[in-house]
Amino acid sequence: MASKGLLSFTRSFNTLRAFNASTKDPLVQCLAPRLSRSMATEAPLPSNMSEAEHGYNSFSMPEDPNPSSTVITTIYSFPDMEPLRFEYYNDKHLHLPLRRDILHRAVVFEGDMTRQGTASTKTRHEVHGSHRKIRPQKGTGMARLGTKQSPMLRGGGKSFGPHPRDFATQLPRKIYDLAWRTALSYRYRKGQLIVCEDGMDFEHPEGEWATEVFEHNNWGKADGRSLIVTADKRENLFEALGKAPQNGRAITTWDVDVKDLLETGRVVIEKSALDDILREHQSDLIGKVRNAQ
């Protein structure tokens, strides 16, 4: 009886170990079963569906150069969103822990940089007109007054009014670059970072075409508007989304910032654009650099 119990326990343990190994397979974790589900690497597939049902047999996993420090990402075609291949990225680029404090500092820093600071008022010395005394100091029975530029009078100067200024604040470059990669990692962990092949564009610059593409991919209003990031401006894509802003907006890598990566429902980005962002914002990994501003 003891030997039978031991044999049963051994079989159960081997079955459990095989199940855990299958669920940790990076191929199973990489592709989403349907376009309505999250399409990033972090979103796992249902365990009751086989790889053959999703058409994964045509994919071959590339050799991971360093399994302990890389994460895998699927590259899709646009706009049909068919999976093409796998790519590996450093875990310090797309798998950082969430740091709300760093993200907050980066968003405030970007907001301060965008403030115009052009508000301007005139002091009593800058208001046009004569500076003679309005009326005699005594004998009129009224209050004492100086010139008509006095802040107490209508049309006079402004005391302590705003003047043109620079609202920009300081933020270390390394912290700002870390915020960029933290925002991308946040999207990656939630399954909302969709990496596409270069050259994303629509066939027609019509808003209806963009709406049909978004509906086909189940990128609806329930998930929020989407952010399309391209390396260069795509005429049809930008014009179509400009006519249908309810679907999302398209910007280039020169215009995107940390706030853009956080405020939309998902981020659909070209591989070259993602590589450019990661290459530009890795100062904390390569050595000493100057401040962001």
TrEMBL record:
Gene Ontology terms, MF aspect: structural constituent of ribosome
Ribonucleoprotein as UniProt keyword: yes
TM stretches of this protein: none
GO BP annotation list: translation
Pfam families: Ribosomal_L4
Residues in the signal sequence: none
Keyword tags: Ribonucleoprotein, Ribosomal protein
Gene Ontology, cellular component aspect: ribonucleoprotein complex; ribosome
Superkingdom of origin: Eukaryota
Start and end residues of each stretch annotated as Disordered: 41-65, 116-158
InterPro entries found in the cross-reference section: Ribosomal_uL4, Ribosomal_uL4-like, Ribosomal_uL4_dom_sf
Protein family: Belongs to the universal ribosomal protein uL4 family.
Protein's UniProt name: Large ribosomal subunit protein uL4m
Organism: Hyphodiscus hymeniophilus
